[in-house]
Amino acid sequence: MALPIIKTPTYELTLPSQELKVKFRPFLVKEEKIMLIALESGEEKEITEATKKVLGACTFNKVDIANLPTFDIEYMFLQIRAKSIGEISKFKVICPDDKSTYAEVEIDLSKIEVQVDDEHTNKVVIDEQRQLGVVLKYPTMAMINRDSLKDADYDTVFDLMLSCVHEIFEGEKIYPGVDTTKEEMKEFFEKLPQGAFDKIRKFFDTMPRLRHEQEVTNPKTGVKSKVTFEGLNDFFGLASPIIA
């Protein structure tokens, strides 16, 4: 005799990058297992594949997960997790004032939003006089690890820049990235002045990011401080929150 099937509720979220509404359901036990196994492995490739598989299943395979910007992935994962195991989550954080005492904080995951830096832009003008510049697209899971690019080496950032060029422009003339070979793109970038490279890197440093600032009180000293949770690593306990 067949066992009864438990129906799961359906919810809706809006992707931060494009105001696209996406229907989703909570994680099932089998999907929690997939993620736990991947996280325990510590392998970036396994974690990425598990994330794509789980998010695809939870959005009824209606979304092209692999080609979403990383901050869409972070936001979607957090919203699904909130509906799966509860919107209020407890975290243990190190108190910034003495950097040794742990305190517990509660965060409403359903209220966490993607934050956008005021100086962020995807259009970077390299030469004002010639109106020469690039328009960049956001990196996807296929292009980048979950970790921040702030500590990435020069070659890593350089290769990512090449992959994220949507188009190069000079005045009204447009050179689409898809019509440019990797060798041509590399030559163009290598001939840029250092200041131009820094301008382009700023696009990655200021990208939209899942971010939340939380006040914490040291149970020993009574001192109140703030810690910052940033990206999936912090929200899923893969790294310590940033001391703000």
Describe the fold and architecture.
- With 244 residues, the chain is an alpha+beta fold.
- The protein folds into 3 domains: 79 residues, no CATH class; 61 residues, no CATH class; 89 residues, no CATH class.
- It is 33% helix and 26% strand.
- It has 7 helices and 12 strands.
- The chain has a 4-stranded antiparallel sheet with strand order 5-10-11-12. The chain has a 4-stranded antiparallel sheet with strand order 6-7-8-9. The chain has a two-stranded antiparallel sheet with strand order 1-2.
- The longest helix is centred in the N-terminal third of the chain and has 16 residues.
- The radius of gyration is 21 Å and the shape is globular.
- It starts with 10 loop residues before the first strand and ends with a strand.
- The C terminus is likely disordered.
Alpha carbon gyration radius: 21 Å
Low-confidence stretches: 238-244
What's the total helix number? Answer: 7
Order of helices and strands: EEHHHEEEEEHEEHHEEHE
- Average of per-residue pLDDT values: 85
The amount of beta strand, in percent, is 25-35%
Instruction: Please state the overall shape, judged from the principal axes of the Cα atoms.
Output: globular
Assign a percent range to the helix content: 25-40%
Q: How many individual domains? A: 3
Q: How many DSSP-defined strands?
A: 12
Separation, N- and C-terminal Cα atoms: 57 Å
Q: Trace the largest sheet across and list its strands.
A: 5-10-11-12
What can be said about the biggest beta sheet? 4 strands, antiparallel
Category by helix and strand content: alpha+beta
